[in-house]
UniProtKB/TrEMBL annotation:
InterPro entries: Beta-gal/glucu_dom_sf, Beta-mannosidase-like_N2, Beta-mannosidase_GH2, Galactose-bd-like_sf, GH, Ig-like_fold
Residues forming coiled coils: none
Name of the molecule in the record: beta-mannosidase
Statement: the UniProt record of this protein carries the keyword ATP-binding: no
Organism in which the protein naturally occurs: Elysia marginata
Length: 526
């Protein structure tokens, strides 16, 4: 039996231990509060900094003005959000860029890829961000017949405003948008604003308005991702995937610039190499932007189109006439049999010989007046690399042999007697054993992907004898640098369209956007 003194000692010990536990719990709460405060410091106003619009290196302010909507509570930021709270953060941005890299570059957030920062920073994808730029232009641009603001990549739901006037709205990350700004520019003090709406909230809004369910609604909870990414034309894995976190970026992820011209310019050039009767032929498709404001409307814009393959002494030259309706020209270059062109081969089968295709257009637009005829000439040139090779998909009937003996082997192999088709590729008439891999986006933030980084990654693949890559359909259509490096390294590309593991809406506006996306991507990737 315990003595009274011993019982008192045990009671005091328990009280002391309980007090220590309470103090420890209080310390944890205090540390948690300080961590929240630290992560919310980025919401404070910041000094203005320098950004740029491509081709116009003037100083500018890039900022975000956001009304934070009422939303479900999760993440460390939820206690401060309400439907009436406005926040303003002004930081320098880069083009290409997104809200994550802008804040990271200024030390306002920690590395998004560290530990569970994707969850801690989740609210950044649910806010609206604006890119703003003040700039000047040369005097000759103001008086140009045609001025076009070209946006090669807006991610994703955006409202484009120049000098207070709406130019247009976008909702597809994979389309190049061009806005007519003729007569809208001043020589000094122009302001361009690209106001982005949260892709997460836009996708959620579209799903709520839809009259039918379009699965999958949400990713598995373990991914901490966002829902309804299939409702918008955006990099699907940016809402999370089973291999990566959720970073619903907003920003200008392609180049943005102003084209000034008076008649017509080449916009894109695509080339397809074939072999006909033992002669190589290069079918070149040239896409033009055409404008004319003159009395010579019946003749359109005339000009000289010249296409040549450097090093092979093969040239095409012709006077052509263009209108805004008749703005695509196809020409065929034939390489004589006597040229003995070295062929391009996949890695492991031969050399990767490439030639340069040079396409030049010089326009001649005539302006008529009472006293004189004025001719304006403009020149645009495009260069692209091409290799001479044939490629065939071979699908021939095949039969599998079965064992002549009885037993389960016999019954099992009876199913293999049916005729099927082979599936393999021949390059230059030779069957190719594909040693391939799956290519996902090289970074969660495309603005950080440089040609040097692509060169390193693709060279690493080539060094282990990979000769084919599938560009996965849950990411992005890759850059020109990617495809050029693959050509140089002898890597064949199996190109997905950006639709992966989901059903998609079938309402007219969505289908129209998809049609424009596919038409554009096919025209620039041939």
């Amino acid at each position: 039996m315990s003595k009274p003194g011993e019982r008192r000692t045990r009671r005091n010990s328990r009280k002391k231990k309980k007090k220590e536990e309470e103090e420890e719990e209080e310390e944890k709460k205090k540390m948690k509060t300080e961590k929240k405060k630290k992560n919310m410091d980025y919401c404070l106003p910041q000094p203005k900094a320098v950004s740029r619009l491509c081709r116009f290196p003037q100083q500018a302010n890039t900022h975000r003005y956001s009304k934070v909507p009422e939303m479900p509570a999760y993440g460390v930021f939820s206690p401060t959000f309400s439907s009436s709270l406005y926040m303003c953060v002004k930081v320098g941005g880069k083009v290409p860029g997104s809200q994550y890299t802008a804040l990271l570059d200024h030390g306002l957030i920690e590395n998004p890829l560290y530990r569970d920062n994707d969850v801690m920073l989740r609210s950044l994808g649910r806010q609206n961000w604006t890119y703003s730029l003040n700039f000047s232009v040369p005097a000759f641009m103001v008086s140009s017949t045609n001025l076009t603001l070209v946006c090669e990549g807006l991610d994703t739901v955006a409202h484009v405003v120049l000098n207070g006037e709406t130019l247009g709205r976008t909702d597809n990350m994979f389309i190049r948008f061009a806005f007519d700004v003729t007569g809208k520019l001043k020589e000094l003090n122009n302001n361009l604003r690209v106001q982005f709406t949260s892709a997460v909230l836009e996708a959620e809004s579209r799903a709520n308005k839809s009259s039918y369910r379009i699965p999958p609604n949400c990713p598995p909870a373990v991914q901490h991702g966002e829902c309804h990414v299939n409702q918008i034309r955006k990099e699907q894995c940016s809402f999370s995937w089973d291999w990566g976190p959720s970073f619903p970026t907003q920003g200008i992820w392609g180049q943005i610039y102003i084209d000034a011209f008076d008649s017509a310019i080449m916009r894109d050039v695509a080339a397809v190499v074939t072999k006909v009767n033992k002669e190589w032929q290069v079918e070149v498709q040239v896409y033009f932007d055409v404008i004319w404001r003159s009395l010579d409307w019946r003749r359109g814009v005339e000009g000289q189109l010249v296409a040549s393959i450097m090093g092979l002494n093969v040239t095409f030259s012709e006077m052509i006439s263009l209108t805004p309706i008749r703005r695509i020209k196809t020409v065929v270059l034939t390489v004589p049999k006597t040229s003995h062109v070295p062929m391009w081969w996949p890695r492991g089968y031969g050399q990767q010989t490439l030639f340069t295709l040079n396409v030049t257009f010089v326009s001649n637009l005539r302006f008529w007046s009472v006293s004189e005829i004025t001719t304006i000439s403009e020149r645009t040139t495009k260069l692209l690399k091409l290799g001479f090779r044939t490629i065939e998909l071979i699908q021939e009937p095949v039969k599998n042999k079965f064992r002549p003996h009885g037993g389960w082997h016999y019954f099992y192999d009876q199913r293999s007697i049916e005729t099927g088709l082979s599936f393999y590729f021949k390059v230059n008439g030779i069957p190719i054993f594909l040693k391939g891999s799956n290519w996902i986006p090289a970074d969660n933030f495309q603005e950080r992907v440089t040609r040097e980084r692509l060169q390193y990654l693709l060279s690493s693949a080539a060094n282990v004898s990979i000769n084919s890559l599938r560009v996965w359909g849950g990411g992005i259509y890759e850059s020109d640098d990617f495809y050029e490096i693959c050509d140089e390294l002898g890597i064949l590309v199996w190109q997905d369209m950006m639709f992966s593991v989901a059903l998609y809406p079938a309402y007219p506006s969505f289908l129209k956007s998809v049609a424009a996306e596919i038409s554009y991507q096919v025209s620039i990737q041939q």
